[in-house]
Write a structure and sequence with these properties.
It is a single chain. The protein has 351 residues and is an alpha/beta fold. The protein has one domain: Spore Coat Polysaccharide Biosynthesis Protein SpsA, Chain A, CATH 3.90.550.10. Helices cover 39% and strands 17% of the residues. Strands 1, 2, 3, 4, 5, 6, 7, 8 and 9 form a 9-stranded mixed sheet that branches. Helix 13 packs antiparallel against helix 14. The N and C termini lie close together (10 Å). The N terminus and C terminus are likely disordered. It comes from Streptomyces cahuitamycinicus. One of its GO terms (molecular function) is hexosyltransferase activity. This is Glycosyltransferase 2-like domain-containing protein.
Length: 351
């Protein structure tokens, strides 16, 4: 079957899947550890941390878009209390220092300063310093969408907090990402995620919204995982909940409500040559109990790492899953990236 046929075939279940997944994928149940009697509770005891959301922006000499990132957060139609925590990771260039000073003038912004320790250490410092019960990361060169037509149903952070507040079985909430800058279009993984997909190396965006205590109990960001850190963070979070017998549903809020900047001027870690096997194995070793439970195998970490990487979705699989969620969106992405969706034999009338 060709890619185009696969996309069309996916359309039939698209609307049903969209409705189900936007409700938090109730059909996908987290499998309990043997003997666990812990059950989900919609009205679990609230954390002592004040209700609201803390946005964490790590910044090291990346001040060119920092003010824009902060403004995109402040411009959201908030109903919950919020703060913006900018973590200055030892910046030493004057444009960045000026941008940080400008942000500090806003009442909604707090500046946390530390010696240069790396991106993940800065993220962790921001989570540890956060005042509110829920947290969301935003890179200093990215932003949240502010177009009024995208915010008619409310802001992404507000909607995410409401879901997490009322559904204890939801581990985190995510939205789709639109690329801006040198490329304009949706990311290839712009479809609802599930725990099963995360454990099979599905992409996890930076901008997930989660409970601060879940992030801390899961072990936060691992500075040793130099690439695919957002995926590693999500696995840590899921594993922490798994060990406490909690369900790991994931909810997608359609958008795109997060904007990811693509540009060559600022060096991203994502461009570095780093072994995916080595980074994945670090995550598997740390959370071997969860991976063994998911794959129903008692293999060594190295073997499970190979299994995880073999399960990683290809771009075609990503596109088909996107089509199951929204066929028109998938076709738009295919056209934007100039994917070939037709066969050279199509003109012969062969089905």
């Amino acid at each position: 079957m060709g890619p185009h046929a696969a996309l069309v075939r996916a359309c039939g279940a698209g609307q049903a899947n969209r409705a189900q997944l936007l409700r938090g994928d109730p059909g996908h149940r987290h499998r309990r550890q043997p003997g666990s009697l812990i059950r989900d509770r919609e009205n679990a005891v609230k954390s002592s941390t004040p209700e609201g959301i803390s946005f964490v922006i790590p910044c090291f000499n990346s001040g060119g878009y920092l003010v824009e990132a902060v403004e995109s957060l402040i411009q959201q139609p908030h109903t919950f209390p919020y703060e913006v925590v900018v973590v200055d990771d030892g910046s030493d260039d004057q444009p960045t220092l000026r941008a940080i000073s400008r942000c500090a003038e806003r009442a909604e912004v707090r500046i946390v300063r530390q010696e240069h320790s790396g991106h993940h250490a800065a993220r962790n410092a921001g989570i540890n310093a956060a005042s509110f019960e829920y947290v969301m990361q935003l890179d200093a060169d990215d932003r949240l969408a502010t177009a009024p037509e995208l915010l008619e149903a409310g802001s992404y952070p507000d909607r995410a907090v409401k879901l997490l507040k009322t559904h204890q079985h939801v581990a985190f909430v995510h939205t789709m990402s639109r690329m801006i800058g040198d490329f304009d279009g949706l990311t290839i993984s712009s479809y609802p995620c599930r725990e099963e997909l995360v454990l099979r190396k599905h992409h996890v965006p930076t901008s997930i919204v989660c409970r601060r205590d879940n992030a801390i109990h899961g072990g936060l960001y691992d500075p040793h995982v130099r690439k695919w850190g957002d995926w590693a963070f999500a696995v840590n979070l899921l594993a922490g909940r798994f060990r406490r017998g909690e369900a790991n549903h994931i909810v997608c809020i359609a958008g795109p409500l997060h904007e990811y900047r693509v540009h060559s001027r600022t060096r991203r870690v994502s461009n570095a040559e780093i072994s995916e096997f080595d980074m994945t194995m670090l995550v598997v070793q740390k959370n071997l109990d969860l991976f063994r439970h998911h794959f129903n195998r008692d293999d060594a970490a190295e073997d499970i790492t190979r299994l995880v990487l073999a399960s990683k979705p290809s771009r075609l699989v990503d596109l088909i899953r996107m089509a199951e969620f929204d066929l028109e969106q998938a076709l738009t992405v295919a056209r934007q990236r100039q994917f070939s969706l037709s066969s050279p034999f199509e003109g012969l009338g062969i089905p």
